[in-house]
Design brief:
The structure is a single chain. The chain is α/β, with parallel strands linked by helices and about 290 residues long. Helices cover about 40% and strands about 20% of the residues. The chain is built from twelve helices and 13 strands. The longest helix has 20 residues.
């Protein structure tokens, strides 16, 4: 059976899916047509229900819970992994709370913030921490640092490997939004998950769940097995940065969410609904036992 599968070209995703798509493990008769897209493109595809299996932001998942169910494996949750707000000028947390900054020409104005997509968890966290900061422009995540340096935006909301590169470009961190979440909740921050289309038979959903876990476990046991595949999608990243990236986003929650991971996800959605950042939904978001 052939299924459509979407994930990002980032090292954490290529690390997780390498064994699955290259049949280094038993895929139980499943084959995959793969689409590589940035996270916001995947979020938009999920909104349209286009793919059988896809990576998506937890923020976006709230809008497609009627179409997709969350798998136990493949998620990116963790401590110290959250998105960062950065700038090349001095901006304080209180400036963002008041939604007033003094820009490069000493003009006082509402800061323009470059975000990696409306439905990213990063943007959700931004809204949670700074509800007044609503002057935003959507950019591809890899373009945000340059947009700040070129003065096209005042502040950048960065994710993925840009955590490791912004300082080399002379940019300054204003706040780590993952750290903000952790201090507020004591929980890991849920960034992205892997979901299966609810139109698939339950048996197939569970088969995907098993195969994906096998793929993550294989990657942990053979971390250099997918090196060339990971490197081929890593945008000229050094091997050191690639594996730093993987180490940041792939962990015990990627093997299995467990009760701790599920608690963090429930808290994220409960908080977002309470603050009316996401719509109400009734569906059980987690894949359920077959028996």
């Amino acid at each position: 059976m052939k299924l459509t599968l979407g994930f990002s070209p980032c090292p954490n995703d290529t690390f997780i899916f390498d064994a699955l798509i290259h049949h280094k493990i038993d895929t139980e008769g499943l084959d995959f047509e793969v689409f590589y897209d940035d996270v916001e493109t995947l979020n938009q595809k999920a909104m349209r229900g286009e793919l059988d299996i896809t990576k998506l932001s937890y923020h976006a998942f709230a809008y497609v819970a009627d179409k997709y169910v969350l798998l136990d494996s493949g998620s990116a949750l963790g401590f110290g992994v959250g998105p960062l707000l950065i700038s090349d000028i001095e901006i304080s947390i209180s400036d963002l709370e008041n939604n007033q900054i003094r820009n490069r020409t000493s003009e006082i104005r509402n800061p323009l913030i470059g975000i990696p997509g409306k439905y990213t968890t990063a943007n959700f966290l931004l809204g949670l921490a700074f509800p007044n900061a609503t002057n935003k422009v959507e950019l591809v995540f890899s373009d945000i640092e340059d947009a700040v340096l070129e003065g096209r935006v005042d502040v950048g909301l960065i994710i993925h490997e840009n955590r490791f590169t912004y300082q080399d470009k002379g940019l300054k961190k204003i706040i780590d939004l993952g750290d903000y979440w952790e201090k507020q909740t004591g929980c890991a921050i849920p960034l992205g998950g892997i979901v299966a289309n609810r139109n698939l038979p339950t048996e197939i959903q569970h088969k995907i769940n098993r195969v994906l876990r096998r793929s993550v476990e294989f990657a942990f046991e053979n971390p250099k097995s997918g090196l060339e595949f990971i490197r081929s999608h890593a945008q000229e990243m050094s091997e050191e940065v690639m594996y730093k990236h993987i180490g940041l986003y792939v962990n015990k929650y990627s093997v299995d969410l467990g009760e701790e991971g599920k608690k963090a996800i429930k808290l994220l959605f409960d908080t977002a609904r309470e603050k009316e950042i996401i719509p109400e939904f009734q569906e059980n978001i987690f894949i359920t036992d077959l028996n």
